[in-house]
Amino acid sequence: MAELHQAEDIRQLTERVREQNYFFTLLKQEINKAIIGQDYMIDRLMIGLLGNGHILLEGVPGLAKTLAIKTLADAVAGEFSRIQFTPDLLPADVVGTQMYSVRDNDFSIKKGPIFANFVLADEINRAPSKVQSALLEAMQEKQVTIGDETMPLPKPFLVLATQNPIDQEGTYLLPEAQSDRFMLKCKIGYPEMEDERKIMRMVSSSRQPQISQVISMETVVEAKSLVNQIYLDEKIEKYILDMVFATRYPERYGLAELKNYISFGASPRASINLAIASRALAFLKNRAFVIPEDVKDIAKDVLRHRIGLSFEAEAEEISSEEIVDRIIAKIQAP
């Protein structure tokens, strides 16, 4: 009887998912007016939007990382703010500061660009750790403290950061605490030749695409609430936990050869974000329940920046992606 009741709940939820998913299909179509051949990146941006998770995009220059984020903000009509991270940037340039007014003989708060729905941290690894750390409270607590006053950030609030993997001169590694606050780290590749032909023609034409608002903030909030209700079976939960725990204790899962390559495994945020991202992916695929393929599809994006590599791994050129691939191949899906 309980199983029949659960099946009926899932059927009803599926109908609601299909209704809401329609709006996100429109959103993707609108973004595709300006972004060609980057479906993976667009899907991950929408997962971040649905899962209320921050995203780190890594790719060489010219892959439309910044344009994709700006286009998403325009299509949702969210408040957009861009922060160009540079070596001389100060924490106050990000979160804001206290300003003294001679006329009022008092201090007032000048809010920084962090107070927006979509915050683009462009080339985040160009600024030193003290500036990157200014984002920590905002990304985790969705609030900013300036002086003795704590102010909430607008909802939704997403930090979408970019970094260039090839130009390392004058860059700073992201601290582990900073990296861990990103739900996903996505590696963006080059477009296919035919897609690049379309990009070349679009840019050289006199008519540039105009992005219109296709969904409202209220629709986004409703969809996020629906994503939290996506059914996650106990067997899928166990599958997620096994995957994360294998990064910490690989020997328990028949992966003893990985132990010397890992200096530290993924934190509990990995389990939380893998569950949320899997639910969001199921929603985008018009399903009211998560299947093992959803977890596999998103696992690398959730885990690649949460695994610390040892000197031995670096010496043997073993990447975190390779470690995740071995874990996925070893752990049996339910």
CATH fold descriptor of the largest domain: Rossmann fold
Q: Can you count the beta strands?
A: 11
pLDDT average, as an integer? 87
Query: How many domains comprise the coordinates?
Result: 2
Roughly what percent helix?
A: 40-55%
- Specify the biggest β-sheet: 5 strands, parallel
What is the highest CATH level, the class of the largest domain? Alpha Beta
**Radius of gyration over all CA atoms, rounded:** 21 Å
Structural class: alpha/beta
In the predicted model, the low-confidence regions spanning at least 5 consecutive residues are: none
- Tally of contiguous helical segments: 14
CATH architecture of the largest domain: 3-Layer(aba) Sandwich
Beta percentage is 15-25%
> Which sequence of strands runs across the widest sheet?
2-5-8-1-9
Distance between the termini: 23 Å
- Element-by-element helix/strand order: HHEHEHEEEHHEEEHEHHHEHHEHH
The fourth-level CATH homologous superfamily of the largest domain is P-loop containing nucleotide triphosphate hydrolases
C-alpha geometry: globular
Write a structural description.
With 334 residues, this protein is α/β, with parallel strands linked by helices. The chain has two domains: 16-190 and 218-223, Rossmann fold; 230-330, Magnesium chelatase subunit I, C-Terminal domain (Helicase, Ruva Protein, domain 3). The chain has 14 helices and eleven strands. It has helices at 2-31, 39-51, 65-76, 91-95, 129-132, 136-141, 176-179, 193-204, 217-227, 234-248, 268-284, 292-303, 311-315, 320-330, and strands at residues 54-58, 80-84, 96-101, 106-111, 118-122, 143-146, 149-152, 158-163, 182-187, 262-264, 308-309. The strands form four sheets. It has a five-stranded parallel β-sheet. It has a two-stranded antiparallel sheet with strand order 3-4. Strands 6-7 form a two-stranded antiparallel ribbon. A hairpin with a 4-residue loop joins strand 3 and strand 4. Helix 1 packs antiparallel against helix 9 (217-227), helix 10 crosses helix 11 (268-284) and helix 10 (234-248) packs parallel to helix 12 (292-303). The longest helix is centred in the N-terminal third of the chain and has 30 residues, at 2-31. The protein is globular and about 70 Å long.
